[in-house]
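User: I'm preparing a small set of examples for a lab meeting where we compare how different chains pack in three dimensions. I only have the primary sequence for this one, and I'd like the structure in token form so I can line it up with the others. Please keep the answer compact; I'll paste it straight into my notes.
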Amino acid sequence: MAIITISRGTFSGGADLAKCVADRLGYACIAREVLVEAAEDYGADEGRLHKALVERPGLLERLTSDRAHYIALVQAALCKLVKNDNVVYHGHAGHLLLRGVPHVLRVRVIANPELRVRSAMYREGLTRTQAIEHVARMDKARAKWTRFLYHVDWQAPSLYDLVVNVDVSGVSSACRIVCAAAGVDEFRTTRESQRVMDDLALSTEVKARIVADESITSPGVDVAASDGLVSVSGTVGLPEEVVRIGEIARNTPGVREVTSTVRAETHWALAQGRYIR
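Assistant: Understood. Below is the structure token output for the 277-residue chain.
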């Protein structure tokens, strides 16, 4: 059993590959479902979540943590959907949102630019010039938001376990390659790797609940978990928010004990005003 993430450029055939792999292995295939789950579970706006994932950050977003907060909701929803394995995820940044989980097979799909342009023309009804501009614009946006959020180059081969070129192999052969890779011992779920996944799921759930709570003006709170023991650190604007964060963490299912080093910086709240999500 494994979790497979598929990263691709716009119109590179990643969605078709994900479906093929899921069908062949009998896995669930998810993408947009993560946004729906996040919106339902944490009361977020699905449109804003999608915008946070696909649009490059503007100047204002570089100066606030709005986008990072939305990503926290998406990461928690993704962890919840994949924690029991047998899933292919072909949404945005799955290989980064699940970073550190040993039984995640991180796949990168590449395709010839001409193939991508023709696909954009066919699927979106664009002229050739429009398709070229659209593909370039989407790739540029994806590169910018991954640098902004994760400080990495999304095209770097070191981020992936397997890179497949659908120009060379075609989707069908690429599908067989990915399925074979998913079966090797390195990507099989073990007791230890499942513990890592469970810890990530719990920490992201606590973080998402903190982010979703409108009474908290936090400019940055970090959460870590280990076998039900949760530690929370960071700063908030007001002392009562420190108390509220502790309550949220303790009341999250699966949490056995909470250690908090969160501190209030009242001068931040007075200078900045209430943080608006």
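A couple of notes for your slides: The chain has twelve helices and nine strands. Strands lie at 3-8, 28-30, 87-89, 104-110, 162-165, 220-226, 229-236, 257-260, 263-264.

User: Perfect, thanks.
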